[in-house]
Write a structure and sequence with these properties.
Layout: H1 3-8, H2 11-19, H3 25-32, H4 40-60, H5 72-79, H6 86-111, H7 117-125, H8 130-139, H9 152-176, H10 181-184, E1 191-193, E2 196-202, H11 206-209, E3 212-216, E4 222-226, H12 228-261, H13 263-288, E5 295-297, E6 302-307, E7 320-324, E8 330-334, H14 341-356, E9 368-370, E10 374-378, H15 391-405, E11 410-414, H16 423-439, E12 443-448, H17 456-459, E13 463-471, E14 476-483, H18 491-497, H19 502-511, H20 514-601, H21 607-620, E15 645-648, E16 653-660, E17 665-670, E18 673-678, E19 682-686, E20 709-711, H22 717-733, E21 738-742, H23 749-759, E22 764-769, E23 779-784
Parallel strand pairs: 5-9, 8-12, 8-13, 10-11, 11-12, 20-21
Antiparallel strand pairs: 1-2, 2-4, 3-4, 6-7, 13-14, 15-16, 15-19, 16-17, 17-18, 21-23, 22-23
Helix pairs in contact: 2-3, 3-13, 4-13, 5-12, 5-13, 6-7, 6-8, 6-13, 7-13, 8-12, 9-12, 20-21, 22-23
């Protein structure tokens, strides 16, 4: 990849931002060395790694990477026999600890069925050096101090050291507390010089204590003297300190040797942690810029959806759709220097470099980028005073270099092509350069303010005109890229908005050719059409998304409905089968009883009659069709009439038609309730003559005026019981299986009296209070034997 393009497109600034997300110097080292790859397979792999890490961050929020150190130098010194310092050993232990944490973290994700094959492979290679880690932590604390428990010898020496220090301090403190001490000492304190305990003695009393002078104050008035009385004790202390240091060195040497034994495992841990730190740094950066993984191709195709420049704050940058490489391989962005054109060039170039480096790009999901062998960029004014090069010359030097090596696997970005010289010659050069690059098959995006290039896209196959939208009302660019619309001059409109005299503007218009005016009007029309099309497309996209969601929801609801309905059908059929089986068993018992009676009592019951009876019972058993998914509607359409039994579909209850209240509605009696039901919500079950039995019984007895319920509300107790007695007899004559008595709630006396009477009645099988829909405790429902 061209170093000049990396610099011009500011890829280094992206790497600087990326460095903030590395957890260790190892990760930062890999980021510093980061460069775009030109190998398609490698780029796909790099993108997969970053996407995998981004998925982990979305699930877990963060990863345990704190505490990684670059221990490669420590390992090397340990291997050649050197003794590591306590801090270096602590760093080794910390790095081992992080590797164990990461291994456990990744294995936990795989157990949760998170698909992370790349990280799982890395975690599998980590060897958990628990013994080495524990040996170091047992001997050295986090601040790098060797602990007393590092060895039994060190514990003994430290104990002796503290005991001797206590004796020395005690001896010296007795000296400074003496009666003459205040006069002879500069200060009543015990201090240390040259690792030996001393006291500050005034110059004139130096001979009083004897001993050794270790230091003096800057004024020379105070001498730090080790009194003769404690010289021997200090010598003993020094001897213990020497032994302590020798034991510490022995412990460190032993730990260093253990480290050297695990050289290969430690180097592998360092490499894997560096890779993981690098991966999660890329994923964290992608999350910060709200990036996504691009689809990579090797066909030179770029499709960016709402792409943003990564170095411009998200709340300020304008997102653009940019496409090149399918129907056209060149884009010419024309129009005045209103800003936005250069940003568009850099956005495409920088997104390409980021994608080829394995970074996510600041664009929506589904964006597509190509892997190029080279990215060339001639952007910005590189006028050189030292080389005596003008703006035009500096541009031409770059373009000459580009033309030497550009091919079909190149992406070329030209900013203000042909600028810095005579407009007519510059435009001609620009057209010629574009033709040359385009003919070589490279993908090229160029910006120019030359009006001659507006027609370039119309005269060349595979070239697309574009411009950056400018709002004349606000006198500022919107930075919105308009593909297919060439730029137009806004000088007259801007001048008018700024207050330039209308006559001056009209005179200026007269100097512009009619062709130019027509072109500008055409461009203005194209811009308006483009704007309207974009708005309508967004609206259509929203409607499509809503329709797809609604369609999906309806499908789910229909599936649930059919599954629930089929389940209810099967449950009902199984229940019916069980009931009939029970009846069949009972009938078998009766038949056996009849046979026994015929044999024993010579009853006139024929065998073939018994067989026929059992055959009819067999045929009455319903067959459960478990494959049936839908009940077939009856082909014959029945004309409903009062007295017909129907099933009210909305309540899944059967009822009797009372009367027709309108063209589409009937009054239906369901239990003790009467309600209006639409004809479409009913299903015909049968007429009174066709039905032999009814759940709530149509009248089949002699008294056709007996109602299904008796209302006792307002009746006196004695009269009510008389009516109940007569009503029960009438209901039995009418052959009703079940009736209801409405007694109301009230004080409960009437209810209790009615129920006491019914409990003792010989024909009553069961009584119960009504359901909520039947009247609750204000109604007693009676079932007859």
């Amino acid at each position: 990849m061209q170093p000049k393009a990396l610099k011009v497109l500011e890829f280094d600034k992206v790497k600087e931002q990326l460095l903030e997300y590395a957890s260790s110097s190892l990760g930062k080292e890999k980021i510093t060395a980061l460069a775009p790859s030109t190998d398609f397979a490698e780029v796909v792999k790099l993108q997969a790694e970053t996407d995998e890490a981004a998925g982990v961050l979305r699930l877990k929020g963060n990863v345990p990477l704190t505490g990684i150190y670059d221990i490669r130098a420590h390992i090397k010194r340990a291997v050649i026999g050197g003794s590591l310092s306590p801090i270096e050993l602590v760093q080794i232990a910390s790095t081992i600890h992080v590797s164990r944490q990461m291994k456990h973290f990744i294995e936990g994700l795989t157990e949760e069925n998170v698909v992370i094959p790349i990280m799982a492979e890395k975690a599998e290679q980590i060897v958990p050096l628990t013994n080495l880690e524990q040996a170091i932590k047992y001997a050295i604390d986090e601040s790098g101090e060797v602990l007393d428990g590092a060895s039994a010898q060190l514990r003994t020496l430290r104990h002796q050291l503290r005991a001797n220090e206590a004796r020395v301090r005690e001896k010296l403190e007795s000296m400074i507390r003496s009666s003459n001490a205040q006069k002879m000492l500069s200060d009543t304190i015990v201090t240390i010089r040259n690792d030996r305990f001393v006291i500050p003695v005034k110059q004139e009393y130096r001979g009083h204590y004897g001993g050794i002078i270790h230091d003096q104050s800057s004024s020379g008035q105070t001498l730090f003297i080790e009194p003769q009385a404690i010289v021997q004790l200090n010598n003993q202390l020094q001897d213990i300190r020497v032994k302590e240091q020798q034991e510490i060195e022995r412990i460190l040497s032993e730990l260093s040797a253990k480290t050297a034994e695990h050289e290969q495992e430690l180097r592998l841990i360092v490499d894997i942690l560096a890779d993981l730190d690098f991966l999660f740094a890329k994923a964290s950066y992608g999350r910060k810029i709200k990036g996504s993984m691009p689809i990579m191709n090797d066909r030179g195709r770029i499709v960016l959806h709402k792409a943003r420049h990564p170095l411009i704050p998200i709340d300020e940058v304008v997102a653009n759709d940019i496409m090149i490489g399918k129907d056209y391989t060149a884009i010419v962005i024309t129009g005045p220097n209103t800003g936005g054109k250069t940003v568009t060039l850099k956005t495409v170039g920088l997104c390409t470099l980021m994608a080829q480096s394995g970074l996510q790009i600041p664009a929506l999901d589904g964006s597509e980028l190509a892997v190029f062998d080279a990215v060339y960029a001639d952007i910005g004014d590189e006028q050189s005073i030292e080389q005596s090069l003008s703006t035009f010359s500096s541009h031409m030097v770059n373009i000459v270099d580009i033309l030497k090596t550009v091919d079909e696997n190149s992406l070329v970005l030209f900013d203000e092509l042909g600028a810095g010289t005579d407009p007519q010659e510059g435009a001609a050069l620009a057209i010629s350069i574009l033709d040359e690059v385009h003919q070589r098959g490279a993908r090229v995006i160029a910006t120019t303010h030359y009006p001659e290039l507006k027609a370039y896209g119309y005269n060349r196959k595979g070239v697309m005109n574009a411009s950056v939208e400018f709002d004349v009302e606000t006198l500022s660019p919107t930075y919105k890229l308009l593909l297919g619309v060439p730029g137009r001059s806004n000088a007259f409109e801007i001048s008018k908005r700024l207050g330039l005299n209308e006559k001056v503007i009209e005179r200026a218009r007269s100097h512009v050719s009619a062709d130019s005016n027509q072109i500008d009007q055409m461009i203005a029309s194209l811009e308006e059409s483009k704007r309207l099309a974009e708005t309508e497309r967004e609206e259509a996209r929203d409607y499509l998304r809503q329709a797809e969601k609604l369609h999906h929801d309806l499908q789910q609801q229909m599936i649930e409905f059919y599954e629930q309905r089929d389940g209810m059908y099967e449950k009902a059929a199984r229940k019916a089968e069980e009931v009939v089986e029970q009846s069949k068993e009972e009938a078998e018992k009766v038949i056996r009883e009849l046979r026994r009676m015929r044999i024993e009592k010579q009853a006139e019951v024929k065998e073939h009659e018994l067989i026929d009876a059992r055959k009819r019972l067999d045929e009455a058993v319903p067959k459960l069709d478990r494959t049936q998914k839908q009940l077939k509607k009856k082909e014959k359409i029945h004309v409903l009439k009062p007295g017909d039994e129907v099933k009210v579909l909305t309540f899944d209850q059967k009822g009797i038609l009372v009367e027709k209240v309108s063209d589409t509605e009937w009054q239906v009696q369901i239990g003790i309730l009467k309600m209006k039901v639409k004809e479409k919500d009913m299903e015909y079950v049968g007429s009174p003559k066709q039905q032999e039995t009814k759940p709530l019984a149509l009248v089949r007895g002699r008294d056709a005026d007996v109602k299904l319920e008796l209302d006792l509300r307002g009746e006196r107790y004695e009269d009510a019981l008389m009516k109940v007695e007569k009503y029960i007899d009438d209901a039995l004559l009418a052959n009703y299986p079940r009736v209801s008595i409405i007694h109301g709630k009230g004080t409960g006396a009437l209810r209790q009296g009615v129920q006491e009477y019914l409990k003792n009645h010989r024909a009553v099988k069961k009584i119960r209070f009504g359901e909520a829909s039947e009247g609750g405790t204000g109604v007693t429902v009676i079932e007859f034997k």
